[in-house]
Amino acid sequence: MLHCRSALTMPSLAMPAYSAEQLAELLPLLEYADSVELKLSVPEAHRRSTVEKLRMDPIDAQVRQVTFFDTADLALNRAGVVLRARRVQRKAGDSVVKLRPLTPELLTPALRRSPNFGVEVDALPNGFVCSGSMKAEIPDAIVKEEISNRRFGKLFTKQQRAFFTAHAPDGISLEDLEVLGPINVLKLKFTPADLPNRRFAAELWNYPDGARLLELSTKCPPDQAFQIAAQTKAYLAGHGVDLFADQQTKTRTALEFFARELSDGD
Predict the structure, then answer these.
(1) How far, CA to CA in Å, does 252 sit from each of 36, 187, 210?
(2) Nearest to 2 by CA among 124, 98, 95
(3) How many other CB atoms sit within 10 Å of the CB of residue 174?
(4) 200/190 Cα distance (integer angstroms)
(5) Which pLDDT value is given to residue 265?
(6) Burial of 249 by CB count in 10 Å (0-12 exposed, 13-18 middle, 19+ buried)?
């Protein structure tokens, strides 16, 4: 198994600079990453005002459906392994096997050369983490059928299965996993009129219990991460977006919800 580095603490995007120690941790990750995604979850109390201030048009949002796979006690999540399948409105679906956090310099050359594998640094106001993802495009009809029948044998390729086997906890196979989901998601991509050089994405995750999570994000090349982070921070702060709010992650929130649901059903 790859050696995994613990999630690192990063100063808030509102802070002016990183310490030498933080730079020493982050810079090697950026050298190996294919992309950086800056993320921010918006508190429920500020959701409506954020949508209005950033002039987001919900009518342009795309419908998605996301399903996760894990054991009832979330053993994969604890080991840093995430399995997900996704349906996308009027497009092919996809599946992913993700490992996070990871130390990318320990990836094998063959894996690094794979066109289906990518390394990304996710940066939130309260931390950052590097992940590696093995992806595959899956016809929507297959994703729909497999999820409807609470199975997933056709969702993951041979390459994905090998990646899973290499990093899953000992004794856990795909056959041991539960279907956690699906969750309906609205995703909107938009470019603000007053920041025409920056493309954003907004995802609204609608959990079955009525809870919702809005996440804003923007991607950039690793060599532009600091510049884009500063630009994004200034823009969002200037539009009244709270950069200091407690952060939630979409995947963890979803996994914990469905794990509770499984437990309550026992």
Answers:
(1) 20, 18, 16
(2) 98
(3) 17
(4) 5
(5) 67
(6) middle
Q: Which residue has the tokens 């993320």?
A: 39
Q: Percentages helix, strand, coil for the chain, rounded to the nearest 5?
A: 35, 30, 35
Beta pairing partners, 218: 38
Give 157's strand partners. none
> Domains in the chain, start-ordered, CATH in brackets?
20-265 (2.40.320.10)
Q: pTM for the whole thing?
A: 0.89
Backbone angles phi, psi at 72, to 5 degrees: -60, -30
114: left (phi over 0), alpha (psi -120 to 50) or beta: beta
The closest of 214, 218, 221, 212 to 187, measured between CA atoms, is 214
Residue 26: strand, helix, or coil: helix
Alpha carbon 156 to chain centroid, angstroms: 18
Scanning the structure block, which residue is given the tokens 């009525």?
210
The Cα–Cα gap between 112 and 118 comes to 8
Residues 5, 101 contacting (CB under 8 angstroms): yes
C-alpha 171 chain-centroid distance: 26
Mean pLDDT per 10-residue interval, the chain, length 266 residues: 39 44 81 94 92 95 97 96 96 97 88 95 84 97 94 92 95 94 97 95 95 95 93 93 86 93 77
At residue 55, the 3 state secondary structure works out as coil
